[in-house]
Specification:
alpha/beta; Rossmann fold; 10 helices
Length: 319
Amino acid sequence: MFKKKLFWTFSVGLLIGAVSVGSLFYTRPTWVFDKLQELSMRASGAQSRVVMIDGHRIHYYVSGPVSGAPIVLVHGLGGRSDDFVNLAPYLVKGGYRVYTPDLLGFGQSEEPVNASYSISDQADLVVGFFDAMGLQRADLGGWSMGGWIAQKVAVDHPERVSRLILMDSAGLTVPPTWDTKLFTPTTPAELDQLEALLMPHPPAMPKFVQQDMLRISASYSWVVKRALASMLTAKDVMDDDLPSLKMPVLILWGKLDRITPLSEGQTIHSLIPQSEMIVAQSCGHLAPQSCSNEFGPEITRFLQTAYIRPVAPPILTGE
């Protein structure tokens, strides 16, 4: 009798739990996806941490051996630090200490209402992150807007960047051929258009997922709009500065990218004589996520073989 009662108690509890999880997934699927991505980061050994930079709370993940050579990866517009969940394990396996910060206004970092969210200000934040981590010099990679920010850091502070990695990067004086308003979609149709820009063959999205994504978009669209407005002024474009770079540069691109087309990657490649370029044939703008199996080994190879001039050892006092 006791075992039967225990069985039914357990079954009812399990049913209630399943209904609760199902209800949460239906009403807040984006939150569930984010938590699963965070769990994936932690499962890969990444530690979630917070640091104060210029009075602002900045969240970041760090993984890999403490003694490993440091590399900092910068996400793109509307992105977050755990966008590198598929890429970081390749670098950790190669023995690198991998830092992925959330830029100001994105992910789990602070969203100050008076910030410009410009490329130059975010580049200053990345330099401040180097200082906070005690990194005198490190390898630096950026994806999309993050690539633009990484270029700015490398140009303004070349002594801090050992090697530069640009993935489907923005940064040139090339006006977008697509409607920038799609980065803050307000309707399911606009969300579908954005997905089609980001990936070659976007999966069908359930209506309840679309509704939640639009809710999330509305909550932080002001940050994205402010960042976009700053970028569209072309104040921080890098065309004239890229030839000054002397460190080894790896350019990784999705051939089917519609946000920053392959032609832009080829232009960046032509402006940096010592750069090398790798193209993922079947990938779009989300190549660092969807083609991490191609990008990961290439980045590791590049870091292990690209020669850099010796400098004073890094200051490892920040962690």
